Structure formats: C-alpha cells, structure tokens
Amino acid sequence: xxxxxxxxxxxxxxxxxxxxxxxxxxxxxxxxxxxxxxxxxxxxxxxxxxxxxxxxxxxxxxxxxxxxxxxxxxxxxxxxxxxxxxxxxxxxxxxxxxxxxxxxxxxxxxxxxxxxxxxxxxxxxxxxxxxxxxxxxxxxxxxxxxxxxxxxxxxxxxxxxxxxxxxxxxxxxxxxxxxxxxxxxxxxxxxxxxxxxxxxxxxxxxxxxxxxxxxxxxxxxxxxxxxxxxxxxxxxxxxxxxxxxxxxxxxxxxxxxxxxxxxxxxxxxxxxxxxxxxxxxxxxxxxxxxxxxxxxxxxxxxxxxxxxxxxxxxxxx
Length: 317
Fold this sequence. Notes:
This protein is an alpha/beta fold. It is 40% helix and 14% strand. It has a seven-stranded mixed beta sheet, sandwiched between helices.
C-alpha cells in the first residue's frame, strides 16, 4: 500500500468508510483482493477497487477502452473543482497508469476559480454544507507539480468553459468529466461543457457527481438539480445514472457507484442509425446441434404410409 493511501486512511471518517464498504463484502473477495494487490494487473486492480480514487480509476479506464474501440489515440478528461489539487494529481497518476495499460494518451484539464468558492445564490446551493471561501488553491505549487499533459484553467466557469470548448479538437474527445463544484449554480455552469458539437466527445461520457452525497442534496438542490435542468434543456444530450454499474462491479457496497453517471451524446455519429461496426455480429446457438432436443414432426412420407395402412385395413374389413 502506498504512503498516500495510508495518509488517506488517517483522515477523519476515512477509516470508518473503508471498514463499512469493505467489511460488509464477502470475506473471500477481501482475501482475493490481497492477491490482486500483490500480483494483479492494473486492470485487475481497477476491477477490485484497489486504485486510490476508484471513482476516477473506473471512468478513466472506461474512456481509454472506448477511445481504442472507436480508433482514437488520445482522450481528454476534466476535473471541475480542483481546490488543493489532490484529486487532479491523482487523476494524472491514474491516467499515466492507464496509458501504460492501454496505449491511449491523455490530456487533463482542471477547472477552478483559484480563490475558493463564491457566495451561494440561495437554498439550491446547499449553503448549510458549503460557504464562500471554502477550498482555496495554491496555484503556483500545484502548477509545478502537474505533469506536462495536464494544466489548470483558472477563472469563472461561465467564461472558461465556452472558451475551452472552442479550443478543443476532434483528435482527443472528452471522455470523462469529474464534477466537484459543490454548488448547484456552479454545477449548472459546469455541465455546459457537454453542450459542444458531438464530435468533441466519446459517444458515452462518464460523469462523476461528487457532492450528491451531502445530506441536503436532492433533485431540487445541488448537482442533481443541475443535471435535471441540463436534461430538460437538451434534446439529444442526457445525463443519467451509469447503467447497471453496481451489478457489474466486484465490490458493490462502495459509495462512488451511486455518484457515477453517464452523459449520453445521442447526436454522436457513432450513435447514428447509419453507423456500421467493424463486422456483422452473430449469436451462437449451441442448441441447434443438440440432437437430444430434436423432436421430428410427421413428414409427407409418414403421412402417405399411414394412409396406405388405413386403406389396407378397410379392404380387409
């Protein structure tokens, strides 16, 4: 286990969270995790939630696999709400490990005001949980720590997002968006990053909504309200919980699963009725050659023979 992972366990509530999530899982899976941690591949460690910030590891690997499927060599991932930068630096580390595992390159952008949170607008920003000035940033130190493939975008999201979208190219589409801006008003501006031309995205973009877990969060406040309004305003762009994700995960009690959504780019060329895959797919039918399941019906020859027997019996009578 890395020093960083040990440091995270010492944070208030973190050890209890791990005990609740892991301690309620089957014992054999926890023992198997030890083997995977020591000898498993990077992909196996993502599957077993052994990478710090599983909520980033899963969608980044998902984006890389999707990019490879559709023939891209690079993908863009975004974090909104950088604060001290621990999440952004961890995102960079995960992206580097994913690059080594998949061959896909990453471009990472972290969006933040750089000065902490602004004033809340009203109850929709859940001011009982957040306030102005929370989560300031040391921009100089963070910039020095970032790798070459990552950069900060500082300023009001309402201004930086449209400018950023105009600068994007089709060679590295957006493949993952992490939203950790706390307020409804900030999340509403953030989700505009999903309103650009469809070729600037992968067909399905994982979206992590970090702050829907606070007590005051509901469909009428915070990030969930921002998602509802985004869906209402866009005919061909919809954000919804990631389909059947819990049933696909080995460990099912972890909180991040409930916060993982997906932006569906319904007007994407790869989701058009004219799109054709690499080859036609066929479903095998292992029962078609299973002779024990065959029950032959009467044939024409059987019918003719039966008629002749009936006629012979009639003549004999």
